[in-house]
Amino acid sequence: MIRAPFPGGLGSTFCSVVCFGKCAAGRHTSLCQAYQNTFTPTERVKQRIQHGFEKFKQETFLRQPKLFREVAVKQTPKFMVIACSDSRVCPTTVLGFRPGEAFVVRNIANMVPPPEQAMIYPGTSAAIEYAVMVLKVESIMVIGHSRCGGILALMTQKENVKRSVFVEDWIQIGLAARTAALKAAADQDLEQQCTMCEKESINLSLSNLLAFPFVHDAVMNGNLTLHGGYYNFVEGSFEYWLYGADGKTGAHSRF
After folding, report:
1. 3-class DSSP state of 104
2. What are the angstrom distances between the C-alpha of 193 and each of 44, 147, 149?
3. What is the pTM of this model?
4. Contacts of 59 (CB under 8 A, 6+ apart)
5. CA nearest to 141, candidates 209, 234, 220, 74
6. What's the pLDDT at 10?
7. Phi-psi bin for 232: left (phi > 0), alpha (psi -120 to 50), beta?
8. Running DSSP on this structure, what letter comes out for residue 247?
């Protein structure tokens, strides 16, 4: 661990490896850069991971011993969250979930394949099965977000033009959402069409979820509820709605 003294009352600060040249209040940037340049890229990664874990251990793990004793025995999450892999939209951060509170699966554009494609895309399907059948979660929420790259790829995809090995096959799951968005926002620009598709794809994923027999049974028995969410990180807002057993959405709430 490298510690360097800084002026301004900061004392010994692990600044050189924490801020990557961007200190609190914008101070000490050049000095931090000098320290940063003494590490190889691999060493900087290790230092960042070490600092991140030490911060978590000191500020979270050691301050909540009862919680971590409980989750050490078993996990009993009430929520399953299906979210996008986008680095800006971590659901644990955005919704403040505690360790053990939410079982999370993330993929490109927060998509859920329909049951008939479950064996083609077993990763997400297996997580859903485990959450419902083993963990017995009480709520599943699909969260989409603004400026989703996966949705942009879907909306700009051209027939017979292959731009990727895996991504374009995956986003085919959302074709019905694209069709609905293009119809509803035919006179809008691409950005607005993408926003429409981002929200349509959430409900498409919820519809696909409900088509899994074990999900449908749990919903009909009153043991499981389905929910949609849309995080707009441009505005700093969150939209929420209930998705009913009849496949209809409830009233939207905006936070």
Report:
1. strand
2. 40, 11, 13
3. 0.84
4. none
5. 209
6. 33
7. beta
8. S
CA distance 78 to 214: 17
Query: At 230, phi and psi to the nearest 5?
Result: -135, 115
The C-alpha atoms of residue 79 and residue 110 are separated, in whole angstroms, by 16
Question: Given this model, what pLDDT does residue 235 score?
Answer: 95
Residue 192 CA to residue 181 CA, distance in Å, equals: 9
Angle between helices 213-220 and 190-211 (to 10 degrees): 80
SS3 category, 39: coil
Is there a contact between 210 and 219 (Cβ–Cβ < 8 Å)? Answer: yes
Give phi and psi for 49, each to the nearest 5: -65, -45
Contact 112, 210 (CB under 8 A): no
- 65 contacts: CB under 8 Å, gap ≥ 6: none
For residue 117, give the 3-state DSSP assignment: helix
pLDDT, mean of each 10-residue run, the chain (255 residues): 36 43 52 68 91 95 96 96 97 96 97 94 96 98 97 90 87 96 94 97 97 97 97 97 93 93
Amino acid letter at 151? I
Strand partners, 229: 143, 240
Distance CA(130)–CA(150), nearest Å, equals 25
